[in-house]
Amino acid sequence: MSRGAAGPSSPGEVAAPPRFAGALHHVGGAFGPSLGGGRFETRSPATDELLAEVAEGRPEDVDRAVTAARRAFEEGPWPRMRPADRAAALRRVAEAIEARGEEIVRLECLDTGLPIAQARGQAARAAENFRFFADAVTHLETEAYPVGDRFLNYVVRKPVGVAALITPWNTPFMLETWKVAPCLAAGNTCVLKPAEWSPLSAVKLAEAIAEADLPPGVFNLVHGIGEVAGAALVAHPGVRLVSFTGETTTGKEIVRSGAATLKRFSLELGGKSPVVVFADADLDRAVDAVIFGAFSLNGERCTAGSRLLVEEAVYDDVLARVAERTAAIRCGDPLDPATELGPLIHPRHWESVRGHVEAGVAEGARLLVGGDRPPDLPGSNYLAATLFAGVRPEMRVFQEEIFGPVLCATPFRDEEEAVRLANGVRYGLAAYVWTSDLQRAHRVAGAVDAGMVWLNSHNVRDLRTPFGGAKDSGIGREGGRFSFDFYCELETVHTALGDHPIPRIGLPQATGR
Ligand code: NAD
Predict the structure, then answer these.
(1) pTM above 0.85?
(2) 474 Cβ inside 6 Å of ligand 1
(3) Which residue's CA is minimally distant from atom 35 of ligand 1?
């Protein structure tokens, strides 16, 4: 069981040794420190207090974890078990997550700054991910291709091998389970490398998996810095699959470094998703969704509706309503149930988001609300919910993923311009369309470049559907049976049912004498 994980040190103790032994790796069924003893710190986004020291994985730690995962894959029972037995083990993981649900939620809020009221949903989703993929794997079907009475050809799904699962710092626990559950359900083994800015809740996942009694080495956890531990994992010849969620630039680097060993990639990358509001929409509901879509999860959300495109006829009205609500968003302590917007994850990220705000002002966008630290909060990572109006497509705030609580509004004249604006960025993750015209809703859904579109809805996930992005937002889809397309190898078995003709070559030559 873990000696890791954390709670806050009390105020004023920042320089003192942490009260916790630290967050450890979990390799081959046991928690332990790095081979070289290295550690890094994780600090509270709200107060900058030291939360825990975390084992810092180096290439030798990654190698140990991959070796454990390979042994579990090649010699252990997991890939050869009946899907129903693997499913039973995954349901035990779901129960173990629920049993420590409150602890996970609290840890997640301390480590990421997510408001607790919103983090609760994330932890519940994590348990659901395990149950969902446990059910899904027992319902997986494969195909047969009969060829009259000559052949019966059929397809089997097999686990691929060791998967590297690399996750970002936003909603870490939910995203980790989103990868681990289908990966293990398919019979693979894995090494999880969580983000260095929010590593703590992954320790609880390792605990839950250990409690569910999965064979040792099926799940391994290695903490560490992306460019060191993550890079070593991607380059490791023992790894066959890489499922990565993070920034587009990191995704490109990962593909480059995994190319030498020809890995299979699933990449869920950045976004700059549009919310298109037509004048005939139910504006009350649209405004609710715009506010939640832009500012929930601190705006640190890949599918955030960060570009608000509004038809000219209702632009002023919608902006006035959105501005009023944005200004009223309650920014504060992530552990306060009344908080709607917590601190940003890290001072470096605060600087990056704030840099975008400054760029927006410099480029002539109109700052209607927010833009800086709220005056009444102690921590330095807080940024008030921010709204820009009059944003033009060539501006950086329109083009670049900010990944913070910043919403940019742009008017449009007609459907054609709305689609052009929606598509005028390099990303294509999600899009949201609000209109009461059914035909237009479907036309626009078809015309936008996005992996996922919501019509008259905020981001409500259906776990059966493919999740992922177009253009620079990623490669591949996970979710439902699509996860198994990534996490399984397809093997086609061709079976002769009779004596079909076989061309004969290599027979002794007739001499003619
Ligand atoms: P990031 O790319 O900086 O890091 C993601 C992970 O990759 C971390 O674990 C990091 O340690 C690791 N990493 C960094 N460099 C690496 C390297 N060279 N080799 C291997 N691993 C490396 O991303 P982030 O800042 O943690 O997360 C925010 C980004 O994630 C945003 O762009 C956001 O849109 C994206 N995201 C996408 C989705 C999606 O489903 N499309 C979901 C959540 C977040």
Answers:
(1) yes
(2) yes
(3) 246
Is the CB of 274 within 6 Å of ligand 1?
Answer: no
Instruction: State yes or no: is 190 an active-site residue.
Output: no
Amino acid identity of residue 339, one-letter, is T
Exposure of 441 in the CB half-sphere (CA atoms within 13 A) = 14
Residue 13 annotated to the active site: no
Q: What is the pLDDT along the chain (513 residues), one digit of tens a residue?
A: 333 333 333 333 333 333 445 799 999 999 999 999 999 999 999 999 999 999 999 999 999 999 999 999 999 999 999 999 999 999 999 999 999 999 999 999 999 999 999 999 888 999 999 999 999 999 999 999 999 999 999 999 999 999 999 999 999 999 999 999 999 999 999 999 999 999 999 999 999 999 999 999 999 999 999 999 999 999 999 999 999 999 999 999 999 999 999 999 999 999 999 999 999 999 999 999 999 999 999 999 999 999 999 999 999 999 999 999 999 999 999 999 999 999 999 999 999 999 999 999 999 999 999 999 998 887 889 999 999 999 999 999 999 999 999 999 999 999 999 999 999 999 999 999 999 999 999 999 999 999 999 999 999 999 999 999 999 999 999 999 999 999 999 999 999 999 999 999 999 987 655
CA of 249 to the centre of ligand 1 (A): 9
How many angstroms from the chain centroid is the CA of residue 462? 15
Q: Is 184 left (phi over 0), alpha (psi -120 to 50) or beta?
A: alpha
* Residues whose CB is less than 8 angstroms from the CB of residue 134 and which lie 6 or more positions away in sequence, other chains included: 86, 87, 88, 90, 91, 94, 181, 185
Is residue 254 within 6 Å of ligand 1 at its C-beta? Answer: yes
Q: How many helices (H) and strands (E) does the chain have?
A: 15, 22
Looking at ligand 1, which atom is closest to the CA of residue 193?
A: 9
